[in-house]
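We include this case.
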Amino acid sequence: MLKRALEGPIRAALSDTPVVMLVGARQTGKSTLAGALVEHRKASYSTFDEPRFLAAARADPVQFVEDLDDTAVLDEVQRVPEIFLPIKASVDRDRRPGRFLLTGSANPLFVPEVAEALAGRMEILTLWPFSQAELEGADGAIFTETLFHSRAPKGLSPVEREDLAGRMVRGGFPEAVEREDRKRRDQWFSSYLTTILDRDVRSIADISRLAEMPAVLTALALRSRGHSNKSALSQDLGIPVSSIDRYLMLLERIYLVRRLPGWHNRLGPRLVKSPKLLLCDPGLLCYLLRWDEERLLSDPTSFGLALESLVGIELAKAADLDGGDPRLMHYRTAKGVEIDFVLEAGDGRVAAIEVKASRTVEAADFRRFDRLRETLGSRFVRGVVFYTGDRALPFGDRLEAWPVSALWAGI
């Protein structure tokens, strides 16, 4: 089993928190990681994907919790939301850390009674598909530290466009990564989406037109470079805006979509606060848009969109390893000046990132950082243009070009 970067934060949470919940999209490795983390303990294991456990927990959730061992792993717990109140009562009687390790494919905080029941008793951590650093056996947890504190990385190996295209179409879902054959990988993604729609979405929402969800996902994939425009989505798909809102909420709740808020500063220029929506995996994006490696290598527009998706979700994974500090956002002014990604640390320092699918970088590529740098002054740590070259290069005051491989090189 590849080492997951989230293992350390989960162990830390289990050492001082009664309930730890590991969430994320299906098939990211949550159950495998949870089992490995409690392997040395005497722990009961129940998965609510199994009918007998699901039926027992729904029939008498209080007794089900009382019958658990001192340490319990409950898998896919979002299928039994009524179990959270008995867990709360049990924890109130015995607040020893690490008593419950829960996993779920849907965010429990979207259910108010669940969020209220375990407030102050539960820590939630998100497991995304494999990061490129994890696949390389590198420490992806140090990337944000490098971005905010260190000098530009050195000694990075060049990354060929063919290698980047392969990384993008495979993505990070463990099953997809293992399948070299494109047809077999596409079959996995097809079955994966069907399972999610038939099981997870149907179990958490009463939606009669589930068949529309793949079209919504595909439309989001095509628009992942810009801020979300629900009216345009509604018009293109022939779906009411109210339904678009509901679909987006569900896709975010089951971790297929990551919402990036617009960065804003009261002292700065007029900024667009609409969120940017990022698919959870570039392999899923390429599957939805029917892009293979040949298409990416022959079409610069497709390559650029897929590369931005890869960089964005890698940044999200790195930020989440630090407990969401820094926060990942995007930047867009009312006049149309855009920056792909902005990371803001808890102390207010900001790093801005642009993605360019080229082996060369020019001074003009850094002009979009000017307004943000002027607005923030010393709070602006650096502006980085990720490109497909092999050297980190300075381009002025706190402006640098970095090879995209810096995301997974273990710098």
